[in-house]
Amino acid sequence: MARRAFGLLGFLAVATLVALAPHWVSDFRAFQLATVGIYFIAIVGLNVLTGYSGQISLGHGAFMAIGGYTTAILMANHGVRDLWTIPLAALVAGVAGFLFGIPALRLSGLYLALVTFGIAVSFPSLLKKFAGLTGGGRGLNLFGLPQQTGGGVSVKLARHELTNNDWLYYLTWTIAGVLFVLAWLFLRGQAGRALRALRDSPVAAASAGVWPALYKTLAFGISAAFAGVAGSLLAIAVAFVNPDTFPISLSITLLVGAVVAGIGSVLGRFGSYVGPLAGASLIVFLQAYASDLLRWIEKGIPLHADPKAPGVPAVIFGLVVIVVMLLFPAGVGGVLDALTSRLSRRSY
Amino acid sequence: MEPAEPPLTQFLQQVVSGLASGGIFASLALALVLIYRATRVINFAQGEMATVSTFVAWSLVHHGMPFWGAFFLTLALSFVGGVALERVVIRPVESAPVLTVVIVTLGLAILLNGFTSVKWGSDVKKFPSPFPTRPIHAGGVAFSIQDLGVIAVSIALVLALGAFFRFTKLGLALRAAALNPEASRLVGVRVSWMLALGWGLAAVLGAVSGMMIAPVVFLDPNMMQTVLLYALAAAILGGMDSPVGAVVGGLALGVILNLTGAYVGFVGGTLRLPVALAVILLVLVVRPSGLFGRAAVRKV
Amino acid sequence: MRKLLLAGVLVAALAPTALGATRSDPGVDANSILIGGTAPLSGEASAGAGVARGAEAYFKWVNAHGGVNGRKIDYRYLDDGYDPSRTVQATRQLVQQDKVFAIFNTLGTANNLAIRSFLNQSKVPQLFSASGATTLGRDFGQYPYTMGYIPSYAAEGKIYGQYVVKTRPKAKIAVLYQDDDYGNDLLAGLRKGLGGRARQLVAKAGYDPTATDVASQVAQLKGSKADTFMIFAFGKFSLQAFFAMNKLGWRPKITIVNAVASASGLMALPPAKSTEGAISIVFTKDPANPAWAKDKGVKLFQTVMRRYYADGVKSGYAAAGASSAYTMVDALKKAGKDPTRASLVNAATHLNERGNPFLLPGILVKTTPRDRFPVSQLRLQRWHKGHWNIFGKLLVAKP
């Protein structure tokens, strides 16, 4: 009972912080935090796949691309309002994920990673090829379209006037919160137990009556749907898509973010939402502040490296990944869960 | 007004160019297969390791070392580097689940890619070729000595590797360690060091691959990124645990890519990567062990 | 008495607005003007980074000599890796966070197109983009804040078509082109320049900028038995094309390589047999060409580069950047003592600049509100024994 209360309290505390943040930060920072929300959604979805059903995907950037392009094509070519494209993007990406999940059943861990890697690498070429639909290399511009809520300038909401960036912030984080709660509801019951059983011991699960095929493909579909929503929101936020908006590095970045967040952290516990928050923040802010970080390090250790060199964020990112995997394989979420469980444990 | 080249000549030309690019895929595929055989891991950082080795070679040449001296020194340094990476980064996660190791190799790839950018800059550099680039003409088809050299090197490597595994004690130990670590330990094989040796050798193969591709596509930090996917496709096509398969798969893939690019209008120059992916999918669906691999039996 | 005081206070408070004094636009303060842009500092197009660095060097030199109307120019450029989505994000950051006065010298066709709507909607000038995309200069009706700088690619393609028609009327042409807006722009111009002889274009092969190499396409083109080969490529792909020509033993009667790929540094890398005699256009004084060694403009260029960007002393890209920086300074001066974004765009659309030290002699940088192609004159040059040699007269290049 106490644990439940603590859990709820923790969630409400974080939710409150998220709700109030735009008041304390600059307009542009709100935009950056909105992108954190986008990655949060993708990472939570990826955790459903990798943490719960034990399937590796190096190709979730492609599902984000499907969601993002669904939104862009509907907005630019069919005049659909941006908000209504979001559930559609989720549907299209979810179906694609579900369909991919079927042949994926035949592939074990490493080979699945390989195939999804191949998808992520070759997807941009496909997007460029079908230029009639996707706008090809030039991409699709969504800025200023009448379908864009607020026209990229400001949005009126319940007698408040929000700047475009604040609007994006609330949009992404509201959706993130809703999706997180939905995932929690779905996974706390039988489905969650079934998936974890499949991950830990497929044979035992099957003999216990769990139908592996259905649950695994369902996990793929849900995970892809989450990525699709993230991609859709990214398209809305940046107001521009082209094949390079969703490069191979995105898929790898997502997986890394999920790992840093903590794979397999039971959804609902403190680590399961703070972890993805940390992972998503790492992704967004490392790129922006890597050179500052390097300058700070240089004060102590002379590295003779040019802080403005383009490779610096990658080096730090790679180091972070390796260190986390070697020292904290359970990720930020795992560490936090271990700490908080100690807090809410009774002393006897 | 000359008519266009006869179709047969054009076809042969595409096949020959395909074999040439295939030779490059083959050498990187060999490295991947070696690590897979030794450690059951797909090393997603193989391409980036090769890039670093090639840049090291470039630096040596740039500072005045003659080409072949730099070449062999780079191989030695790559060997040491490969062993070091295995000891420091892979050993701690040797018995960890697949996902962990995949992530670690990915992190390594990201790290090395950034490192080459920082250390050597991102602009394109010229890399000397050990072979002259003069073309030879035979029946209207142009071969370049460089391309023949690349193919010859790949074949030589696989032969050398094969000989190493078959006829040396160390090679035997490596195979034993990969096949049955427990039993090998019992007979005194230092399994852990065998894995490091595998990584070292793979790094050497990768370095050769990098130094052969750089004269053709020019040296820059992202040189190996797409080659990695082609090499993975080649390894899958040939069979992940077969070195011969890696070379055959590489050559075959090069030809497939060129032919589909030239003759299937839909594919053209833009869909080469999806074709490689299609090859991977086709092989995994139809014959998962590839052309030369042994079918794995899954024990429950 | 109190009423007078109140009136006085009101007048004092309202006077500035009453007199029509303008609030200064973002990015301008008493001491400096902040302009921003993006360039490919990394990635396969990183050879183009010189354009930004050359411009930066020139601005630093101008700052050291008094600046513009007493203000120093602060030019902030971010890396976009030639990726338009990164360009979008970086440009938004520059406009919304750093609050730049104008966007300048952004490199890349797709990159400029990606940010065009946003900038025009936010009324931020997008000036002297480092791209010859014809639409940048042509579509000012919809995008009044946007303008390119270098001769448009369509015009360049047209010049090549006209050259072939004049010198080898029976030529058969094969084209290797980058399959995007940039390459297709050149191709469209070529067709226009060939006019009625468009059928002489017997083969074309496109490549994707993410491809590993173009050897297969070059082999295809050689197979068409064309005797004229045009390379509409960028960065390492043009190098690969020359190498492939050499390997295949293909020696076309005319080889044309487009301007952006023709930097002396790049042309020196492939075997001489393949590049000898290649033709391109030029509009800057190439600092690597000994023919310009004694030219005052080039000497100035070298002084500036030695001081602020040593790697760029012989770089054609840096020269292109310096020339657009010179024009930017020109426009900023004309924008007045208290420049606003509107006054800057006005100055940029009324250019009449002679004597840009980094452009070829005789080139007049001229714009009007309805003619937004600042540099529209060029000359042809031929690569011979490791150098570019200019030949022929100054040509007009309009799309």
Question: How would you sum up this structure, described in words?
Answer:
The complex is a heterotrimer of chains A (348), B (300) and C (399). Chain A is 74% helix and 3% strand. Chain A starts with a helix and ends with a helix. With 348 residues, chain A is mainly alpha-helical. The model of chain A has no long low-confidence stretch (mean pLDDT 83). Chain A contains 14 helices and four strands. Chain B has 300 residues and is mostly helical. Chain B has a single domain (7-286), classed as ABC transporter involved in vitamin B12 uptake, BtuC, CATH 1.10.3470. Chain B is built from eleven helices and two strands; from the N terminus they run H-H-H-H-E-E-H-H-H-H-H-H-H. Chain B has helices spanning 7-39, 46-62, 67-90, 98-120, 145-167, 169-179, 181-186, 191-217, 225-238, 243-263, 272-286; strands at residues 135-138, 141-144. A two-stranded antiparallel ribbon of chain B has the order 1-2. The N and C termini of chain B lie far apart (70 Å). Chain C has two domains: 32-151 and 292-377, 3-Layer(aba) Sandwich (Rossmann fold), CATH 3.40.50.2300; 154-282, 3-Layer(aba) Sandwich (Rossmann fold). By secondary structure, chain C is α/β, with parallel strands linked by helices. In chain C, the strands form four sheets. Chain C has a five-stranded parallel β-sheet with strand order 2-1-3-4-5, sandwiched between helices. Chain C has a four-stranded parallel β-sheet with strand order 7-6-8-9, with helices on both faces. The N and C termini of chain C lie far apart (70 Å). Chains A and B meet through helix 5, helix 11 and helix 13 of A and helix 4, helix 9 and helix 11 of B.
